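INTERNAL TRANSFER SHEET
From: sequence group
To: structure group
Subject: LLM class F420-dependent oxidoreductase

Please process the attached sequence and return the structure record in the designated field. Keep the field labels unchanged so the import script can parse them.
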Amino acid sequence: MRLGFSLPVFGKAAATPGGIARYARTAEQAGAASLWVGDRLLSPVNPEVAYPGYDTMPEEFWTAQDPFTALAVAAAVTETAILGSSTINATQYQPANFARLLTSIDVASNGRLLPGLGIGWSPDEYAAVGVPMAERGKRLDDLLDLLDTWWTKDTVSHNGIGYTIPETHVHLKPVRKPPVHLAGFGERALRRVAERADGWLPVWTVPETIPADMLTSTLAKIRADAEQAGRDPRTLGVALRVNAAPDTKPELIAESVTKIVATLAPDHTFVDLTYLTSSVEEHIDLTGRLLELTARG
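Return from structure group:
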């Protein structure tokens, strides 16, 4: 099993000077196949919509690193690990800047970027960036159009939603076109995965709260819809995030990861350590322990 882990971008560990670089380097040396970021702009004291499963915002999100900076740092200190996001709230960013950021990180990492994108759920965050939340779906479709042009054409022009890019030279290209994965379980989100994405970003929890057959049946539907849309369903990848609850034992995490990987057969799997550690040292120790346990099978 090729297992990855979240970079320490949230919580107390995220405030450690040099912590992301130290963890990324050490985790790759220990055998981590991929390193991942999430995206949280705000942690409102009184959120308009609370974090799913909570009455407010979890304390872990009171401290949050910028995901692009974290990926760039990881790119600089690693050589082989895939660098992914699950997920970046793509429609909260200015599209041209967003395209340039992703391209630059892919070049810096020698083609190791796996951008996992979503549209977020927080009205407070959309208000903070001045983007109408009601437009997020069509803005994501527009952004996907722009990324395709940005990564494949040397001269780019685009009339987007609320912005215009005049004909301009864009000769910085990714090492290889990054495989854009999309998050979501809603009908429209899954249809977008089937019709437009290179892969899907499902989530598994430990202890298990989602039936495994829910993931497998959803993936089967995505691939069937992709085939109906004239795409090769075999080309659709899967990057699975495993969210473990606080104080979950490493043995249970490893057991659950082994089970879901055998069932779903994802291309990439990573454990989100956000709720499990409070320091970079704990992040490193738990990474090593989980790699050891999953290697035993």
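Handover comment: Residues 3-295 form a domain with the TIM Barrel fold (CATH 3.20.20.30). The chain has a mean pLDDT of 96.
Transfer complete.
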